[in-house]
Specification:
Elements lengths: L1 E6 L4 E4 L2 E3 L6 H12 L3 E6 L11 E4 L3 H11 L5 E4 L6 E3 L20 E3 L3 H8 L11 E7 L4 H11 L4 E5 L8 E2 L2 E3 L6 E2 L3 E2 H14 L1
Parallel strand pairs: 1-4, 1-6, 4-5, 6-9, 9-10
Antiparallel strand pairs: 2-3, 7-8, 10-12, 11-14, 12-13
This protein binds cytidine-5'-monophosphate.
Length: about 210
C-alpha cells in the first residue's frame, strides 16, 4: 500500500521569528511511518518540525504551518491508498501575522493576538477520498483524537463528521510521551482499547488494522 502519514505539531507564525504551536513530539507519526515501511509499504511522511530522525526509506515532505501541511496533503493524497493524520494540526493561526518582528514597545497598549481557524485537513480528505471502482481500490482515511473528557463519545462524533475509516483516540497524557493507551473504532466495529504500550508497538497494530480494512 502507499501510505501518506502526517506528523508533528504545526507552527503558526505571529511574526518572522515567533510562532504558536503545541507539545506534539511527532513520535506517533514517525512510528507509524517506520511500522508501515517495515511491513513493506511505500510511505510519504509529511512532517512539521520535530527533533526526530526520519525513518530510512520514507519520502519526506517538510512543512511548518497548517496551511503548508494542507497544501502538501492535497498534492500527495491522490496517489495514496491510506492517509493517516497523526499530526497535531493547530486549530487556530494568527489572523494577521506581522511581516516584521514585533517590537516590545515602551508602555503602549499590550499587544493582543487575534486568531482565525485553520482548514480541517482531515475533513477535506474524508470528503474527497476515492471510493472503490473497477480500476481503483478505495482510499482509507484515518484520524486521531486527543480528548480529555468523554473520550469515546467525542472521538466517535469526529469520526462521523470527518467521514473516517478509523479513529484512534487518546488522552492528553499521550502528547510528547514515549508510550500511550489508545482506543480505536472503525465504522463497523465496536470500540476497543489497546494495552498501554510504546508508540512503536501501537503503530504496528494500527498499520495492521489499516491493511485489514
Ligand atoms: O477536530 P480535531 O482537531 O480534534 O481532530 C483531530 C484530527 O484531525 C487529527 O487527526 C488531526 O491530525 C486532524 N486535524 C486536521 N486539520 C486540522 C485540525 C485537526 O487534519 N486543522
Amino acid at each position: 500500500m502507499r501510505f501518506l502519514i502526517t506528523a508533528g505539531g504545526t507552527r503558526e507564525y505571529i511574526d518572522p521569528v515567533r510562532f504558536i504551536s503545541n507539545a506534539s513530539s511527532g513520535r506517533m507519526g514517525y512510528a507509524l511511518a517506520a511500522a508501515a515501511l517495515r511491513a513493506g509499504h511505500k510511505v510519504t511522511l509529511i512532517t512539521a518540525p520535530t527533533a526526530l530522525k526520519p525513518p530510512v526509506g520514507a519520502r519526506l515532505v517538510a512543512v511548518e504551518s497548517a496551511r503548508e501541511m494542507f497544501a502538501a496533503v492535497k498534492e500527495h493524497f491522490p496517489r495514496c491508498d491510506c492517509l493517516v493524520m497523526a499530526a497535531a494540526v493547530s486549530d487556530f493561526t494568527p489572523a494577521r501575522p506581522s511581516k516584521t518582528k514585533i517590537k516590545k514597545g515602551q508602555g503602549g497598549p499590550r499587544p493582543t493576538l487575534q486568531l482565525k481557524p485553520t482548514p480541517d485537513i482531515l475533513r477535506w480528505a474524508g470528503k474527497h477520498r476515492r471510493v472503490r471502482t473497477a480500476h481503483h481500490r478505495a482510499q482509507l482515511v484515518v484520524g486521531f483524537a486527543l480528548e480529555d473528557r468523554n473520550l469515546r463519545a467525542h472521538a466517535e462524533r469526529k469520526m462521523r463528521h470527518k467521514r473516517l475509516d478509523m479513529i484512534v483516540a487518546n488522552a492528553p497524557a499521550a502528547i510528547n510521551a514515549e508510550a500511550s493507551t489508545v482506543h480505536i473504532k472503525t465504522p463497523n466495529s465496536e470500540w476497543f482499547e489497546l494495552p498501554p504500550a510504546r508508540k512503536h508497538t501501537t503503530a504496528r497494530r494500527i498499520i495492521r488494522l489499516a491493511e485489514e480494512l
